[in-house]
Amino acid sequence: MNTATNANETIIFRIDQVTGEKHQFRACTTCKHFHVPIQDQRKTCERCREKSRLRNRMRAKAQAEPTGQMDESASPAVFGPDSSASRPSKREAEKTLRELEGDEQKRALKMMKSSLNAMAQTSTFHEVPPRKTPSHTEYQKASLLYDAAKAARSKNGLCNFSGCHSIVRCDNIDHGQRASMVTKDLRKIVKFPFKYDAPIRRVISENGVRLVYSCTCKTSVPKQLTSSTNPSGPKPKFSAQSDENTGHTREVCGGSVSITVRDDTSHPLPIAGQQVIVRIKH
């Protein structure tokens, strides 16, 4: 074997022991061995090309599999120093619903609704009866709490009620916003009279919000009193205060409506929740 050096590359000569012919070889650009015939236009030897084809087949197989795992029978030694190139690429992190946009978000919402409908059709839900505690009664959902509050008010106008329910916390609704939503529900659904636009007490802590409103169950429209015997006599006097703007008579009943929203960590799984407590006191 003889060696010759050109201006650009090194060439070696090998003599065939059978025919006596002299063959020229240059170095492979991958393994650096002199296995590439000088007349071959390719820069890598046959052995390196076969390794490259094998790596490409394994990479395509790994990408086609959903688990992204390689066959355990394939040994890293087969691929040599470039075995890392045959490993499947890491799967991209899944996006949350808020990160999706356009048609992707619509498709995700449609899939969620279809899944929930299927669960509702195949599952049987049993209504849990209210559970009483020393401080308040726990209800399964908000509608049951509102129904109980309406029933308590229908029995006695000066009712005393204390109930709560828990929900899964939503990232974009904090305790203050949830308390405002419950305030609107008590006004529109329960139709309980209280001064909803001006809380008399607002307590904000690290894990909750409490709003207290004054009850207005004694507020009524004054009757028009007339006297047939002495129309020009002195006007009757009312013991209650009169609102000059609305003409309503205000009688202070001393009652209050309290709405508390706080953290709820009672779920056996690590699921953050919000507990809503409604108290009506006279």
Automatic annotation (TrEMBL):
Here the segments flagged for biased composition (Basic and acidic residues) are 89-105
Question: Biased-composition ranges for Polar residues?
Answer: 222-232
Positions of the UniProt region annotated as Disordered: 52-105, 222-251
Highest taxon listed in the record's lineage: Eukaryota
What protein does this entry describe?
A: Uncharacterized protein
Q: Which organism is it from?
A: Macrolepiota fuliginosa MF-IS2
